[in-house]
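Reply to dn_fold:

You asked what the input looked like. This is it:
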Amino acid sequence: MKAVQFAAVGFALSLGAFMSAPAWSAEYTAVMPPDIKWADAPSIGPGAKTAVIDGDPKSSGPFVMRLKVPPNTKIKVHTHPADENVTILSGTLYFAAGDKFDTKTAKSFGPGSYFSIEKGKPMSDHRKNFCTHPVFRITD
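and this is what came back:
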């Protein structure tokens, strides 16, 4: 287990410029709000920002990232190559599973709400107000 912890720490440290500066302990990883490094995410929409908190979203392993999306942003139908887990921190996200973008069928998720969708399942979402939420992948 310690070898896995050290390997994970080494991998995370190698990401340097791509992730927030974590506070390391022998037992856990922690990232404080002032240490989060936000980057523009034009593929999501104007004004959207992402921050990788831990791991690498481009790998097949676990990761945690945050997404800040401005009001009136619509993310059209898309899929992900892995299960997606989302908890809303602020604002409201309107989420719909399915292959059609339909604001009338979208379910409202406010602060503290959580949803998960399996890999490959079509989904879309939109926001009427500023919304911040983490996205994370859990693996065995």
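The mean pLDDT is 81.
Hope that clears it up.
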